[in-house]
Specification:
By secondary structure, the chain is an alpha+beta fold. The chain has 13 helices and 21 strands. It has helices spanning 17-20, 30-37, 45-48, 62-77, 110-115, 126-139, 155-159, 187-198, 209-224, 265-272, 321-330, 354-362, 377-385, and strands at residues 4-5, 10-12, 81-83, 89-96, 99-109, 118-119, 141-142, 146-150, 169-172, 178-184, 203-207, 237-244, 250-251, 253-257, 276-280, 292-297, 300-306, 345-349, 368-371, 396-397, 408-409. Strands 1, 4, 5, 6, 8, 9, 10, 11 and 12 form a nine-stranded mixed sheet that branches. The protein has a six-stranded antiparallel sheet with strand order 15-17-16-19-14-18, sandwiched between helices. The chain has a two-stranded antiparallel sheet with strand order 2-3.
Length: 411
């Protein structure tokens, strides 16, 4: 049985929420993080990416994690963040381009992750998982939530009454995304939500596989270190935001290749034409339907449609657009065997637009770009239900959840 739990959030003073909260730690490099935190002494990037204050240190060193802890304690001590008096749920609304999505902020049990009630669809990288595990254990906090989704069976209707109250936060971030938070502190409302979500057979990780793995492992590490562990301790849970699947949007996750594997553009197009129906486009155009991608090569855009004989309708993973591209094009034609480790392929989230793909090819940095049709939520959930694993970089969710807006303390 899936379960959710209210928690005593560590959160910013309302007037400082926009300045303190930050984009997720993993959507920028160190240089970008330092620039974003410049002039913001209380930015959560000083906690999630504390290496920006220690430029000579190894970003994964104990020194960096301890510095994150010191910065978090400093913010508490100086009163810019505070902990809620009683355990609560929260409703988190994001607004982007006129579209809204509403999530319930709660803690979920690490046991549900290990038992499969919180379903995965991607593999994690050991180094990234270890980084967040060490960060959580050093700071005693989960500063950013896992992005979960669920098939709504009436749960969202129970969230709506909270929206009638004034929000505790309501601001637009530097990227124009709106963030609004309401608190649910009524015990009866909390119990109704807890019971309703317990009826869900499972939830799905939309974004945050490394956060969820690290959160669950941190819970296990603390349990193993406690000879009197009972299973209901605060550290046995990790922070999540649960959004109904009908409100979410997956964006395209596109590919760039550095070279054509010794082939000329003409030779590559000839071989591609044996796999796809290829048609030259007049201008930059995104793919319009599944099994179609747009190719940018040598100053020209092409519409490419996989021929139906290549579909694998029996296997939902192999039938994904990104899987077909890998198995039919990137591997056999371009020699890219493992996109997870190859240095000859790069990935660009759809939020950056197709113009970036074109610019990177025109600059000579890359030889070709593949603009993909987005994976659907149904595909993601069906694959997770079948215990399948999607290829790397299959989904890109927008908008991103803010770090530091609502923080879960392990104690």
């Amino acid at each position: 049985m899936f379960s959710i739990h209210p928690f005593r959030a560590l959160r910013p003073k309302p007037e400082l929420a926009a300045e303190i909260s930050s984009l997720p730690y993993d959507v920028m490099n160190g240089e970008e993080a330092a620039k974003m935190a410049n002039g913001k002494p209380y930015s959560y990037l000083r906690v999630t990416r504390s290496e920006i204050e220690l430029p000579e240190a190894d970003p994964h060193s104990k020194e960096v994690y301890e510095h994150a802890k010191l910065n978090l304690k400093k913010m508490e001590r100086e009163g810019v963040i505070f902990q809620e008096e009683t355990p609560c749920f929260y409703v988190y609304r994001q607004t982007m381009d006129g579209r809204e999505q509403y999530g319930l902020v709660a803690c979920v049990k690490a046991d549900d992750y290990f038992k499969g009630s919180i379903k995965k669809h991607e593999l994690t990288r050991a180094d990234k998982e270890e980084d967040r595990l060490n960060h959580i254990l050093a700071t005693g906090a989960q500063t950013g939530p896992v992005f979960l989704t669920y098939r709504d069976k009436g749960q969202f209707a129970l969230i709506k009454p909270a929206l009638q109250k004034p929000p505790i936060y309501d601001f637009a971030a530097e990227d124009g995304i709106g963030h609004t938070v309401w608190i649910i502190d009524d015990e009866a409302a909390i119990e109704r939500l807890r019971i309703s979500f317990a009826s869900l057979p499972c939830t799905y990780i939309a974004d945050g596989h490394h956060r969820s793995a690290a959160g669950a492992r941190a819970a296990k590490a603390r349990a193993d270190a406690n000879p009197e562990h009972k299973g209901n301790e605060e550290y046995s849970r990790f922070l999540a935001i649960l959004f109904p699947s009908t409100q979410l949007r997956i964006m395209d996750y596109n590919r760039l290749v550095k070279d054509l594997n010794t082939q000329s553009p003409e030779e590559f197009l000839d071989k591609l034409s044996e796999i796809c129906n290829v048609e030259k486009l007049q201008c930059l155009t995104a793919p319009q339907e599944p099994k179609e991608f747009s190719l940018y090569l040598k100053g020209e855009w092409y519409k490419c449609k996989f021929q139906e004989k290549h579909y694998n309708k029996k296997d939902p993973v192999d039938n994904l657009d990104v899987s077909l591209l890998q198995s039919l094009v990137l591997q056999p034609l371009l020699g890219i065997d493992d996109p997870r480790t190859s240095q000859r392929v790069d990935f660009v989230g759809g939020i950056r637009g197709l113009g970036e793909l074109q610019a990177r090819v025109d600059s000579g940095e890359c030889a070709a770009a593949f603009a993909m049709y987005p994976t659907s939520l149904d595909e993601l959930m069906d694959i997770a239900d079948a215990d399948g694993i999607m290829p790397p970089k299959s989904t890109w969710f927008e908008p991103k959840l803010r770090d530091g807006l609502l923080v879960h303390l392990l104690d």
